[in-house]
Amino acid sequence: MRARQTTDSTPMLRWLFTKGRRVLTCEVRVDRRGTFDVCVVPLWNIKAAIVESYGGAASAMRRHAEIAAAFRQAGWMVARLTPNRSTEVAA
After folding, report:
1. What are phi and psi of 35, to 5 degrees?
2. Enclosing domain of residue 82
3. Which of 1, 27, 59, 84 has its Cβ near the most Cβ atoms within 10 Å?
4. Do residues 79 and 34 lie in contact, with contact meaning Cβ atoms separated by under 8 Å?
5. Distance CA 76, CA 58 (A)
6. In terms of C-beta density within 10 A (0-12 exposed, 13-18 middle, 19 or more buried), how is residue 57 classed?
7. Per the domain annotation, does 19 fall within a domain?
8. Is 2 part of any domain?
9. Torsion, Cα of 26, 69, 21, 50 (10° steps)
10. Better-scored residue on pLDDT, 85 or 25
């Protein structure tokens, strides 16, 4: 994975993960060129964010699923944003 800034992109999917007092996000974003970025951002250290770029949505979504599964196996809980911006914890 390489670190880079994502600008002018639209989120397609964003999951929040919590473990203890730590929170991180894992999301898929698409930019104007049609590049799909999978971004992992630890909110306690935003400078440590990681971005992987993919040429297609399917590849990016597969990678998001792999990362999400690894976090869940490591004991992270998934919290999904609802339209009213409250969070609910998923099992």
Report:
1. -85, 135
2. 9-90
3. 27
4. no
5. 24
6. middle
7. yes
8. no
9. -40
10. 25
8 falls in which pLDDT band (50, 70, 90)?
A: confident
**Is residue 16 domain-resident?**
yes
| Closest C-alpha to 38, from 20, 22, 56 | 56
Task: Determine how β-strand 22-31 pairs with β-strand 87-90.
Answer: unpaired
Other residues' Cβ atoms within 10 Å of the Cβ of residue 75: 9
For residue 47, give the nearest of 4, 18, 13 by alpha carbon.
4
Q: Which helix (H) or strand (E) holds 78?
A: strand 77-81
Evaluate whether residue 58 is within a structural domain.
yes
Cα four-point dihedral sign 18, 69, 39, 37: negative
Q: How many domains does the chain have?
A: 1
Token duo for residue 72: 């869940």
Contacts of 49 (CB under 8 A, 6+ apart): 3, 39, 40, 41, 42
